[in-house]
Specification:
3-stranded antiparallel beta sheet, Glycosyltransferase, about 15% strand, globular, 21 strands
Length: about 450
């Protein structure tokens, strides 16, 4: 599909790096060609991963090395599993088949090792479920369920809120001092297992944890960012939409979107209203969300976390489209300034507080969600800039790598597993108009895993 741009939109588009051949012709952009370029980059990076780090968790695309995650010294195939549904939706069917073959022959979670419950849930359980949604292979569902069963002992607490870590074999748990995101980012994955197997225990465990957190909101309606899952006592006073609280709010909405559970819709609405009342700040014509005291609403900081840049898209999903768009545009202005977002930014000083960027997908996520809702070319252009800038500065010898410094554009040497699942999928869906995806009825998790909306 080709879309004609206004003169202003064309100027914005030309501000992106023209590193891709024949995509921009005058004042028109060939979106299909841009989607094919994303696909070609995915194919190239995958071929290098296959040659240098097949079955390993995280790839090092500068050196060709690898590292394990979430276990310290054992690989579970994280990047491979996270990539599968992206490969499928791009029509890279042989690559998907190769990955499926690896999972069926090698993915084994009976390991005497400790993992993050949260990271393992959203990345590995979610990745297996989205791959199952793509192809229907029952082995993928069985492996996702086996892994979820190994995580469930963490939820056995007086409050129902899970410990942060669990041993996959012994089921030993550790670290009760948690936060909203790690407590409440499970309903999409565990709820999908319940839907597919008919066993309610997964859904019930995830929902109980979310409700326990919700019930402890302050009189102002806000959540703090540290809690003891044994006692339910808060350990901090900071309310934030950024980590470690961010995806809790996302999964309140998602529990409604994916399962039609009205309790989650009520929780999302109830929690969002005080965020909009207490946490919005305006500066230089831009809208930001600030950290505040969760009981008084007093502002604590002007520093912004790049990982919160997803939130504009979530607000649009929840009905606050104008506010969400304003917040996303504020982050777009930072991208225009640095090319790649710094992971910390102070809007009061206009300077980065952290100059790294670990191949973060959140702004592309927001652009994609805005575009699904209103179809504005503005969001496609924002995603295009995000992709082309990544292609210019993050591309390394064997793939795409983190940035050590977005100001100097110095690269690091790490491609996180979520890169395969998130922004490459957001870009492709944003540009390609693929027939393998239902653009009107779909669901993507916090990790970009498609659990609803594939068309086989």
């Amino acid at each position: 599909m080709k879309t004609l741009l206004t003169r202003r939109q064309a100027a914005l588009a030309l501000g992106a790096v023209a590193a891709t051949p024949a995509l921009a012709r005058g004042n028109a952009i060939d979106w299909h060609a841009l989607g094919e370029d994303v696909k070609n980059e995915m194919r190239w990076a995958w071929a290098n991963y296959r040659e240098h780090a097949w079955g390993k968790d995280d790839f090092k695309p500068v050196s060709g090395g690898n590292r394990s995650f979430p276990l310290k010294d054992h690989h579970l195939g994280l990047s491979l599993i996270e990539a599968m549904d992206t490969l499928w939706v791009m029509g890279l069917d042989q690559e998907f088949a190769d990955a499926l073959g690896w999972v069926k022959a090698n993915a084994d979670f009976d390991v005497d090792g400790e993992v993050s419950v949260f990271e393992t849930e959203i990345r590995l359980v979610g990745g297996l479920l989205s791959a199952h949604h793509a192809c229907g292979d029952p082995v993928l569902l069985a492996k996702a369920r086996d892994l979820a069963d190994r995580l469930l002992p963490a939820f056995d607490t007086p409050t129902g809120m899970p410990y942060r870590y669990v041993n996959l074999r012994t089921k030993a748990v550790r670290d009760p001092i948690s936060n909203p995101a790690e407590v409440g980012t499970h309903i999409a994955e565990l709820g999908t297992i319940s839907t597919l197997t008919g066993d309610r225990k997964y859904y019930d465990a995830a929902k109980r944890a979310m409700v326990a957190m919700y019930d402890r909101r302050s009189k102002a309606g806000l959540l703090a960012d540290t809690i003891d899952v044994r006692t339910g006592q808060w350990g901090s006073r900071r309310a934030t939409i950024a980590p470690p609280s961010d995806s809790y709010y996302e999964y309140c909405w998602d529990g409604w979107q994916l399962f039609g559970d009205h309790d989650f819709k009520a929780m999302y609405d109830t929690l969002t209203a005080p965020i909009l009342r207490h946490q919005i700040a305006h500066a230089n014509g831009q809208l930001w969300f600030v950290d505040v005291d969760f009981e008084t609403g007093k502002q604590l900081s002007t520093e912004q976390d790049e990982l919160a840049s997803f939130y504009g898209g979530l607000l649009a999903q929840g009905g606050a489209g104008a506010t969400g768009a304003a917040y996303t545009r504020a982050w777009a202005s930072v991208q225009a300034k640095y090319g790649i977002l710094p992971e910390g930014y102070d809007y009061a000083t206009g300077k980065p507080t952290y100059v790294t960027n670990a191949l973060r997908p959140e702004l592309a996520d927001a652009a994609f969600n805005h575009w699904l809702l209103d179809g504005r070319t503005e969001w496609r252009l924002l995603g295009r800039t995000h992709f082309l800038n990544m292609k210019r500065w993050n591309r390394a010898r064997y793939g795409y790598t983190d940035m050590a410094n977005v100001v100097t554009k110095a690269q690091a040497d790490h491609c996180p597993g979520y890169w395969w699942s998130e922004q490459m999928k957001y870009y492709y869906l944003l540009f390609s108009d693929t027939k393998r995806f239902d653009y009107k009825d779909n669901y993507l998790s916090t990790e970009g895993n498609v659990l609803k909306g594939f068309r086989r």
